[in-house]
Amino acid sequence: MSALGAKPAAAGGMDPMASAIGVVILLVVIAATYMLAGTGMALMALIGVIVGGVLVGFGVHFVPVGGAPAAMGQAPGIATGVAMLAAGAGLAGLFGGAWAAGQGLVIAVITGGIGGGLMMAITCMFVNFIYVFGMGIPSASGKVAKDPITGDTQAEFKSQGTEGHGLPFISYVGGVIGGTLGGAGGTLIYIMLLDIYQAELPAMMDALPAQILPIAVSLAGIFAIGMFLVNAVLAAYNITGTIEGPHDPKFKRFPRAIVASAVASAVCGMVAIMIVAI
Amino acid sequence: MESIVFGIGITALAGALATVAGAAENTESDIGSQGDPNSQVQLAPQMGYLHRIFNKAVAGEPPAYGLWVCLGAGIAWAFMAMQINPILAIILGSGLAVFVQGVYATTAYLGRTASLAKFGQPVYVDVLKSMTTVTMAHAFVAIFTAVTMCHLINAALGHPFPLPLLGLVWGIALGAAGSATGNPFYGKERQYQSQKFGAGVPISASGNIVRYAEAGERNSLDNGWFSAKLGGPASGICFGMIVFLELWRTVLFEHVGAGWGAIIVGIIIILIFAVIDRYIEVWARKNYGPYGPAKEEEATA
Q1: What is the pTM of this model?
Q2: Cross-chain Cβ contact A169/B242 below 8 Å
């Protein structure tokens, strides 16, 4: 019951010193990558990876996650972990995005985003299906008096001794937006890394581009999954436990996660790029 | 045209396999008490309620299934590289992955339950003997179907990811969909069967899980039977629809409008699900009504 009992301050402010240090590390990593790799392509790849990581970190904040209390109908949201659910949606998006990689960056990133959003749309619908038809419980938010989208009042649909349950429509929309951003971010990381691996690996391994392709796809895929999990877990730490979606006061903490995700993605991205660029 | 018909057939088969995978995954995790409801299984002895429920939640379902499906897919991929028939390779790979799941389940049960020794919770060897094999059997069904689905996506539909990577991606998605859909049904409806239907479990009741069955003490096989009635099939349909619709929109509309066709169809499907979700939400509010008056009665009583 720690997720319910220990409720930290709703909106954590930005620590100026920590943010400044984060930005300095970010700039140092970008500069170091440019100096070491010496190509504009490596720099572009790193910036793409950072943007992708930020999209993932930001997107996780939209996903309504109730954790263990949600599994007992004690709190609204989806009854699983923040990082886990975001990873499930984002990776389903990455699957679609990777498939569309041959159709150009924009199409692939949007396809990846839609794949993540689709996964969340179906999952969130089934969460409400189980709550309503399996358990006889209507949706109710514990954080707002009225649903910001539909205007439905929430308090009278909250059963006694709970913080709410199910997924109010705003949480459903948040889940879809979160899955979309996660899927798009994961796909962007994958495509940026795939491009640089396809460009650098043939010369490095003295092989034809066609022979290199399976290695490039595997390397970019596993790095994209790894970086996705790094950013999802970072965002989960920022959220601390459960969040209802964009209407939750905890959502206002996202600027911290954006700085943290940018720095973490830059460091991870530099390692991923340096294995072929040096 | 033939390739599209072939693609749709493979898509339907992959969707069917995913449905079975989702149902088996959720039933397995509920028998093993691996999802979030496990917090109550772990909490109960601390509140004085000793029980005979299996307890193996040392990892969430998504990473655990990411590991097992990836392992099964990786071993199958290695066997296929040795020119072994794909069906045999997938069975062997899934079988070996299930042994890892069995070791995981055994050590997790012993570790988690032994940590409750100071609250008087015994480690039941008969529970270990009878439940572990049942979770392994369900895990085999889930892993085998998920790996077969990944093999179809890779070999027949031509997805660029190699089989182990697809196993990791879809294993994590399988665990995420299964835990999201099935956990509330097991957590609220089964573990707290003695609480009122149609309301969340009051926080004050935490830990007081139902420990007795029709005859004797309740065990995790009873929970598996209960989950298989709704939580499991719903998780299966959820995961099956995710896989089917994702593949369907890509196979049919990938080349329409230079890639935009699949995107537009994806947006339309999302909007349709949003409408269905809103309908369910409104239906529940209209038919179940607010809790208000009952709450006041109880407060004054």
Answers
A1: 0.92
A2: no
Separation CA B171–CA B180 (nearest Å): 14
- Domain range for A207: 46-273
Of B115, B249, B231, give the one whose Cα is nearest residue B177. B231
DSSP B189: I
Tell me if A169 sits within 8 A of A154, measured CB to CB: no
Q: Let me know if residue A139 belongs to a domain.
A: yes
Is A16 within a domain?
Answer: no
Specify if A34 maps to a domain: no
Which A residues, 160 through 189, put their C-beta within 8 Å of a C-beta on chain B?
160-162, 164-169, 172-173, 176
The answer to whether B39 contacts A79, with C-beta atoms less than 8 Å apart, is no
Tally of domains in chain A: 1
Question: Rounded to a whole number, what is the distance in Å from the CA of A264 to chain B's nearest CA?
Answer: 21
| Residue A122 in tokens | 């179906």
Among partner residues B161, B187, B234, which is closest to A98 by beta-carbon distance?
B161
- What is the residue-level pLDDT of chain B in tens, covering all 301 positions? 778 888 899 999 999 999 999 999 999 999 988 888 888 888 999 988 999 999 888 888 899 999 999 999 999 999 999 999 999 999 999 999 999 999 999 999 999 999 999 999 999 999 999 999 999 999 999 999 999 999 999 999 888 899 999 999 999 999 999 999 998 999 888 989 888 888 888 888 888 889 998 888 898 888 999 999 999 999 999 999 999 999 999 888 888 888 889 999 999 999 999 999 999 999 999 998 888 665 444 444 4
